[in-house]
Amino acid sequence: VFAVCKSYRERSESCQHSLSKKLYSIMETKSTNLALSVDLTKSNDILQIVDTVGPFVCIVKTHVDIVEDFSQSFVNHLSDLAKKHNFILFEDRKFADIGNTVNCQYNNGIFKISSWADIVNVHPVPGEGVIAGIKQTGLSLGRGCLLVAEMSSKGNLATGDYTKAAVKMAENHKDFVIGFICQSRLTDDPNFIHMTPGVKLSSGDDALGQQYSTPEDAVINKGADVIIVGRGIIQATDPVSTAKQYQQAGYNAYLQTLK
Ligand code: 5BU
């Protein structure tokens, strides 16, 4: 077990970024470390599941570019639900270009991501410019950014020195980088939140290289602060009761790390 075995309240006090503080206080208030990855293609389906599962999650993660009927009204509704149920919006855009281009992609086009997403993530592969590009707009809006330091997919290249370099990049931008998408505990610095995708109640994989671990494995062995769950919930017969199961499994695992 890793060294950061602090309660959400303590973590909230020992991190700097206002968004991290907000996230930890949501996690504490709602007793949840569950992020819902709402990978659906119709805005009404997304809004419906988010409204019912919202009480059990601290984050809703989107892939806005798969929404067929995207509109400003969809984003307004999603933001209303974030307020209603007290969760944070994370657009899983994985920016990966030069700073100027990612800044344009963050602000413009149909999605105008910077106007509604509290958190986005970036691949460190282009170098620090990718962070600077997002930060140029995001910092003054109070947004935060996660670095994809490791991936859950089979054969991915985000390992070893690449992952170490990602941690260094994050340390150079503590005012804006609030953590990592990762598969292991990368640092004990309380400023960095570790979020882990590839989580399902039973481990295994899918047909396209996704590799799953259980909530317990992710939190206790891999050191995840937040578990990210997509199909495990959205493809369940009863997404609400399944979300509760993930919430409980994730939260109980967290409680075990405090012992
Ligand atoms: P799943 O249905 O629980 O497998 O969905 C996982 C989500 O997390 C999906 O939106 C992916 O794009 C996202 N993801 C991931 O699975 N693995 C990674 O390493 C990263 C993101 Br980064």
Structure in words:
This protein has 259 residues and is an alpha/beta fold. It is built from ten helices and ten strands. It has an eight-stranded parallel beta barrel, surrounded by seven helices. Helix 3 packs parallel to helix 4 and helix 5 (99-107) packs parallel to helix 6 (129-141). The longest helix is centred in the last third of the chain and has 19 residues, at 239-257. It comes from Tegillarca granosa.
Produce the secondary structure layout.
Blueprint: H1 8-14, H2 18-30, E1 34-37, H3 43-53, E2 59-62, H4 72-85, E3 88-95, H5 99-107, E4 119-122, H6 129-141, E5 144-148, H7 160-171, E6 177-181, E7 193-196, E8 204-205, E9 211-212, H8 215-221, E10 226-229, H9 231-234, H10 239-257
Parallel strand pairs: 1-2, 1-10, 2-3, 3-4, 4-5, 5-6, 6-7, 7-10
Antiparallel strand pairs: 8-9
Helix pairs in contact: 1-2, 3-4, 5-6, 8-10
5-bromo-uridine-5'-monophosphate binds at residues 37, 39, 63, 92, 148, 151-153, 181, 197-198, 210, 228-232.
Summarize the structure.
With 259 residues, the chain is α/β, with parallel strands linked by helices.
What are its keywords?
259 residues; alpha/beta; eight-stranded parallel beta barrel; two-stranded antiparallel ribbon; 10 helices; globular; binds 5-bromo-uridine-5'-monophosphate
